[in-house]
Each structure stands twice: as C-alpha cells, then as structure tokens.
Amino acid sequence: DSFDILGDGVKELLVGRDDGMIEIYNFESADEPVLRHDYALSESIASIQGGCVGKDGYDEILAATYSGWLTGLTTEPVHREGGSGEELKLSQEMQNKISSLRNELEQLQIKVLQEREKYQQSSHSSSAVSSVPAFSVNEKFTLNKDDASYSLILEVQTAIDNVLVQSDVPLDLLDVDKNSAVVSFSSCDSE
C-alpha cells in the first residue's frame, strides 16, 4: 500500500512480506526508496493497509496474516511522561475502553469454557465420532539466487511438531536465524 504514515506530506510505501516483515519505505530526494522502519511478525503477511482506524489524528498500519490475525501498528505515543511524583491519570474514555475490554474478555472466557465442556461431553458419549480436523497448508519452495539454495516455507494454522523431508538425492540443510527447528538426519535404504 502507499500511505503517508510519517505525516510529512509524501506517501510512503508499505510492504508486507512472506517472511513476516513489515517495511516502510520513504522516497526522499534519491531515486531509490529508503527503508525508514521495519517490524517483524511471526507469520507471513497476506495484506497490508495504511489509514486512520483506532483514534482520530493517529495513523496506523493494519496487516492481515496468513492465519487470519489482524495486527496494527500505530503512530499514537505508547508512553506518557509525568513529572516527578505526579500520578498519571487515565481519561474517562480510556477507563471506559479498558472496562469494556475486560468485560469482553470475561465473556469470551466463559464462552470458551462452555464450548470446552460441550466438547468434553460429546467426546465421551457412545455415539462420538473422532476425526482429524482439516487445515490448509501454505507452502513455498523458492530459489535464493544469492547462495544457490532453496527455501522451503511451511505455514499451517496449528503447531508443527515434525516435518519429514525425503529425497533420493543428497541434501545439505542450512540453518537460518528465524528457524527454531532441530534438524536430525537419517540415511535411507536405497530400495
């Protein structure tokens, strides 16, 4: 997306990447865009948009991720300064917002408990049928021209415990910074 998130009168380029990076590029006097800010999310970004959503006068970047999470980055200051010994007072609007969020959280917790109880009852009944839930897999296998390697990227909407890669040609697996996996090798019977 293009949006004036920095408030300088010139639109910036907002980029959401497959690796979870949000980047803000500015076109200053140079012909090439200049990276001004970046932020890393834990999953790929499906869509990105700039605008004013939450509070008047403070622009935001909204990013939708692969699993459906909506993440917002705002220009609103997070911290407010107070003098020595001065207590920070919350406005009535902010207190109401906090109260409504607490109420909503309590209602969601009650709903989760009810649904969990309903599931437990149905799973212990004699007519219960067990099935594996269906989920979609977002996979990419791309060539990295810089080091002549391929990147295999797998995303699912649940935790990944194991990934088995089987090949009939020898493979070298390279570790990357974002990878938290433990790699183990085992030789395969050629037959």
From TrEMBL:
Residues 1-75 form the BBS7 beta-propeller domain. Pfam families: BBS7_GAE, Beta-prop_BBS7. Keywords: Coiled coil. It comes from Peucedramus taeniatus. Residues 91-118 form a coiled coil. GO terms for biological process: cilium assembly; intracellular protein localization. This is BBS7 protein. One of its GO terms (cellular component) is BBSome. Residues 133-190 form the BBS7 GAE domain.
